[in-house]
User: What shape does this take?
Amino acid sequence: MNVIETTKLTKYYGKSRGIIDVDMTVEEGEIYGFIGPNGAGKSTTIRTLLGLIYPTSGSATVFGKDCIKHGPEIRQSVGYLPSEVFYYDDMRVMDLLKYSASFYDKDRKVIETRIKYLAEMFDLDLKKKIDDLSYGNKKKVGIIQGLAHEPKLIILDEPTGGLDPLIQQQFFNLLREENGKGATILFSSHILSEVQKLCDRVAIIKDGTIIRVEQIRTLLENSTKRFTLELAGVADPAPFAVNGVSDLAVAGSSVSFLFRGHMNDVTRILAGQDLVDLLVEEPDLEEIFMHYYHKEDGQ
Amino acid sequence: MNVFLRELRAYRKSAIIWAGSLSGVIIVFMALYPAFTQDVEATKEILSQFPEAMRAALNLSLGNFFTIYGFYGYLLSFAILAGAIQAMNLGTGVLAKEVSGKTADFLLSKPVARSRVVSAKLAAVLTILIATNVAVSAVAYLSALSVAEEPLELATFFLLTSTLLLVQLIFLALGAMFAVLIPKVKSVVSVSLPTVFAFYIVGMIGEVLENENFRYVSPFKFYDTNYIITNVSLEGTYVILEAAIVVVAIGLCYWIYLKKDVRASA
Assistant: This one.
C-alpha cells in the first residue's frame, strides 16, 4: 500500500514557483528520503501533504485519502516535525505536550506515559517554560510532540538543525525503532550523508521538480566525493583523466576533482602520486547536481 | 474544547485587568454624580457656556445629562471606547497570534479542521467579552443604585449597558476579519487603536456637523443614549446594520482562514 501518493502536484505562490508536477509514492514501512537544495520545493510538498497549503493543481493522498478533504482524519496518524520549531512561550513544556496530545483520539494516558519516556530519553525538563529553552531543547519538544502519539506516518522537514551529534544519533535510533514497529517515514534534508544513514529510497528534487528517485544503495555505489590533493611536485593532469572524474582542476602542485564510482579506482591512481596532503570530502548537493544530474538532464 | 480552553486560559489575566479597569472607571465617574446634581442650575449654566460644537463633540446633551440614565449613558460612552479596544484586541489577537508567534504550523498540523479552530477561538473571546460585560454591568448597577436619588428602571439601565457589548461585538468581528486580511500582524494594538479611534473620530465629526448620516459609519453612534432613555428600546435599523456587519465580517474571516496558505515561518 502507498502511504503517500502525489499526482502532478503543483503549487505556485502567486507567480513564483513552488513545485511543478511532483509525482511521488512512498510505500508503507519505508524510510523515504527527500533531498534537494534549499528552495527546491521540499517544504512545499510536505506542507501540501499536511494541508497547511493548498495545491494549485494536481492531487495528493495520504493513507489513500485526499489531503484536503480528509485533512483532520489523516493527521490523526501523522507526526510532523518542522525544520524550525515555535511553540507558545507562555506554556510549560508539559502543558504544551499535553495540549498537543489533546488533539489526538488516542488514549491520553498512553500518550502521557510516552511523553515521559521520551523526555527522559532526550534528557528534557518537562517543568521548564518554553521561553527558557535553548534552541536544541525546543527541538526536542518538537520531536516529542511529533512522536508521542506513535503516528503511522512521520514527516520530518530538515529535522536535524540545532541538534548536537549525540542527540541526533539518539533521534535516528528512535526513528529506526519506530520504523521497525511499522511507521513510514518521510525525511527531507539538504544533507546527503544524513539521508544516506537512514533512508531506503531517495527522491531528489531540484527547482520544484523531482529529477530522480533512487535506491539508497545505488546512490552509495555511485557515491560522489570531492578530492583535494597537494603533491610534492608539479601535478600532471594525465593520470586523473579517467572515467568517473569530473570538475578536474590542476594548478601547480594542487589537484582537485569530483569522483563518482568505486573507491578502489581512485586509490589506485593516488598510490602512484607523491602526496603531501589529501582531503576527501562529501561534495555539497549543489556540486552533485551541477556535475551529474544537470548533465544527465541535458542529454 | 481544547483550543477553547487554551484561549480562555491565555486571556484570563487580560480579561481580569480589563473588567477591573472598566469597573473602576465606572465607579469613579458614578461617585461624581452627586457632585454634578447637587447644583444642577449652576452646572447647567457652566456647561451651556461651552461652545455648541464642543458640547456636540463631547456628546453632552443637557436634557438628559442630569438624570442618572443620562449621566450613566455619558460615562458609558467612554467605557465603550475602551471596551471597543478590548474587543478588537481580542478579535485580532486570538487569530493573528498563531501567525505572529509562528505557532500556526504546530496548531494546524494537528488533527483539527480549520473551521473548528476559528470557532473555538471566537467562542473563547466571545465568552471573555460576555464575562467582562457581566462583571461591569453588575458593578455599574450597584454603583448607580448607591448614588441614584430616584428608583432605577432595570430595563432602561440594562439596555444602556447592553450597548457596551453590542459595540464590542462589532469590533470583535472587525478584528477577526482584519486578523486574516492582514498577512502578518506584528502588533495587535497597532491594528486595533487606529481602527477604533478612526471610527470614534468619524462619529465625533458627525456630531459636530450634525449630520445624521455619519451615524451609519461609526458603530459608536449606532445606539443613542437619549433614544434609549426615551423609548426604552434600541433603534431597529442599527440592530440590523450591526447584525449585517458582524455576519459579513465573521463570514469573511472563516472563508479566508479556511482557504489561506500557511506559509513556512522563516
Q: What stands out?
A: Chain A touches chain B at residues 13, 43, 47, 50-54, 71-76, 78, 80, 82, 84-90, 99-100, 102-105, 145 (CB under 8 Å). The domain at 222-298 of chain A is CATH 3.30.70 (Alpha-Beta Plaits).
